[in-house]
Design goal:
The protein is an alpha/beta fold. The strands form seven sheets. It has an eight-stranded parallel β-barrel with strand order 3-4-7-11-12-13-14-15, surrounded by seven helices. Helix 1 packs parallel to helix 2, helix 2 packs across helix 3 and helix 14 (about 395-405) runs parallel beside helix 22.
Length: about 650
């Protein structure tokens, strides 16, 4: 496979064409910016898993201008002081042990996208004074010329420290609307000094940083430049200018370019969610490859082996960059190389366990891989006392609990009342834009059988049967059932639930009214609108998809608008009639025509079995939606954590 052929970036040879993408690690960095032991373990696991190069996440070259240290920002790695050398040296040695190369991504800072206390306390900076993204009533101040020159020097110093540590290359983060990208774009850069004006002026900062790195660390020290070719926002960068930038980066000595897209206003490009198609930014890499002679790295949902291989074979890029795919399964490269692709744990693109956790001040991890970022403590270790374990319920939480318990050496049975494993993953994965959930359900099911779990399908269990089974430990994963709120005049023959519709137990007509604008209601609306139905979503709150990650919510809202779904927020259905539903918005009433009413008003835990078992058995656990209806991550994490300790 082309994926496993050696490749070169400058004078550096990589053993294959698979690069781990840079991702912010959150609290895996120590408060002083040093890499923690957990961070070193995290990156080393991906090198052990077969990646040819590891690129670390955002690493600051300066923390004084934005006052990150003063304000306690411990969520960024740093390379601005000699104290950071030793942990990086340990990481470099560990990565090299597995034949991989180590590249550290360097960032100038956040700029206008600074968050937390920085905007309101006046510590956000930008090329030109501009409103802060997260707090638009506060402005980021304009950097002085001397401060920009200081940042250029900081890049060269950081590169020298990294070279001393044994790091093989650096990547400059000129992407996503962070500070360096703000300098490059006329949308945010209105300076009149040497760092502003036309494209040449706007590129002066990154080009000076590149040349300073080469001067301090050596011309043979590889520099990769990552940038977005199209911001997908009005006034943002477009492709023609980006291709000229590529040529200038090459002339300045850049050894490879990583072609990306998007910014914070269009996060669903910079961080492609569930709804983006596989390979959504391959065309960006292909365009850059035609403009330059240096290697080009492609990104954007490339964790599908056949797709990644075709990108390389068709010459659209020289390397593929995998981010969340390697969070989900650090052994992705080795499994593909060894022909074990069915054993690859798939990413589902929900951002809950990765970027979502980082923005909560937590460490980076993964929805489908609880051990990500905690590889040492969360490793599944063989039990010293094998026991019999009964899992009731074959959804994601139950399957994860069963396979983890079996992998540790317990004797495990799983009872599922339906005729297949998967639980709510099955209806949730019906829309084509939820294909990744389909892959997850298939993966978990295969792994349950592969790990030797005894599976009994169509087994309806009651407390007496479970007690008679004589298991040493019981894990209840019975899920939840839809909430059916009472509505005046409701004709139950015309009402269905989103789950029943997706299961094929009911059929939607041409005009659909959906009660509930959470994730289930909105995804069902998009699914039906894409098939030609006229859909209205009614939500009592002031916004839809509340609580979902920003990138996912941004994209879903856009897709609903693009497909013509009408969304009524701050509203409720007060009555269902023969013609549809009466929607109340404040004091106003509106009749919405509908031949199908779909309830998507939430779920209620199905925990009756658990409560009855706690009175009969000494060791009973529960996981997933029967505890409280939540996301896939909570079900998988709870299943994993419970099984890890039995």
């Amino acid at each position: 496979m082309k994926l496993f052929e050696p490749g070169h970036i400058g004078g550096l040879q990589l053993k294959n064409r698979i690069i781990m993408a840079p991702m912010g690690i959150g609290a895996l960095a120590e408060p002083d910016g040093r890499l923690s032991r957990r961070a070193i373990d995290y990156y080393t696991a991906r090198a052990k898993g077969g990646a040819g190069m590891i690129i670390t996440g955002l690493t600051c070259v300066d923390v004084e201008i934005e006052k990150k240290v003063e304000k306690g920002f411990g969520t960024f790695a740093r390379a601005d002081h000699p104290i950071h050398i030793n942990p990086l040296s340990e990481l470099a040695d560990a990565v090299h042990d597995y034949g991989a190369k180590l590249c550290v991504q360097l960032t100038a800072g956040m700029g206008r996208v600074a968050y937390g206390t920085l905007p309101r306390e006046g510590h956000a900076v930008a090329p030109s004074e501009t409103p802060c993204f997260w707090a638009p009533k506060f402005n980021a101040r304009e950097l002085t010329t001397r401060e920009v020159e200081g940042l250029v020097r900081a890049f060269s110093v950081a590169a020298l420290y990294l070279k001393v540590a044994g790091v093989d290359a650096v990547q400059l983060h000129g992407h996503e609307g962070y500070l360096m990208d703000q300098f490059q774009s006329a949308l945010w850069n209105r300076r009149t000094d040497k760092y502003g004006g036309d494209l040449e002026g706007r590129l002066a900062f990154p080009l000076e940083a590149i040349r300073a790195i080469k001067a301090r660390a050596g011309e043979d020290f590889p520099v990769i430049y990552r940038y977005g070719l199209v911001h997908h926002v009005e006034g943002g960068r477009e492709l023609p200018e980006s291709l000229e930038m590529a040529r200038q980066f090459e002339a300045a000595g850049v050894d490879a370019l990583e072609a990306d897209a998007g910014c914070y206003e269009t996060w669903y490009w910079a961080h492609p969610p569930t709804y983006q198609p596989p390979g959504c930014m391959v065309d960006m890499a292909e365009a850059v490859k035609e403009a330059v002679n240096i290697p080009v790295i492609s990104v954007g949902k490339l964790g599908y082996p056949d797709l990644a291989e075709s990108v390389l074979r068709e010459g659209k890029a020289d390397f593929v960059c995998l981010g969340r795919a390697l969070l989900a399964d650090p052994d992705w490269p080795n499994k593909i190389r060894e022909g074990r692709r069915e054993e690859v744990r798939p990413c589902i693109g929900d951002h809950t366990g990765c970027l979502g956790r980082v923005f909560q001040g937590k460490s980076l991890s993964c929805t489908v891989n609880p051990a990500a970022g905690n590889e040492r403590a969360f490793a599944l270790r063989p039990t010293e006392s094998p026991r019999s374990v009964l899992v009731v319920g074959g959804g994601p939480g139950g399957m994860q609990a069963a396979m983890a318990a079996a992998e540790r050496g317990h004797r495990v049975q799983l009872w599922e009342r339906s005729d297949r494993l998967g639980g709510t993953l099955i209806p949730a994965s019906v829309p084509e834009f939820k294909r990744d959930l389909r892959d997850l359900a298939a993966y978990l099911s295969r792994e349950v059988y592969r790990s030797g779990v005894g599976v009994l399908l169509e087994r309806e269990a009651d407390a007496g049967q479970i007690e008679s089974a004589g298991a040493d430990a019981v894990i209840v994963a019975t899920g939840a059932r839809p909430v059916m709120p009472e509505v005046a005049g409701a004709d139950t023959n015309r009402i269905t639930t989103a789950l029943d519709l997706l299961r094929g137990q009911s059929v939607a007509g041409d005009d659909v009214l959906i009660i509930g604008g959470g994730l289930v209601g909105c995804e069902t609306a998009l699914y039906l609108a894409q098939s030609g139905r006229r859909v209205t979503v009614v939500e009592m709150l002031d916004l839809i998809c509340k609580g979902e990650h920003k990138a996912n919510r941004q994209h879903l809202v856009k897709l609903l608008s693009d497909t013509g779904v009408e969304v009524l927020t701050g509203s409720k259905v007060s009555e269902i009639t023969a013609d549809g539903g009466v929607v109340a918005t404040g004091d106003e009433r509106e009749m919405i025509k509908a031949d199908t009413i779909i309830m998507a008003a939430g779920m209620r835990p199905e925990n009756t079995l658990y409560e009855s078992l706690t009175e009969r058995l000494p060791e009973v656990h529960r996981v997933g939606d029967c505890v409280k209806p939540r996301r896939v991550m909570e079900a998988i994490w709870e299943g994993y954590r419970v099984a890890r300790l039995i």
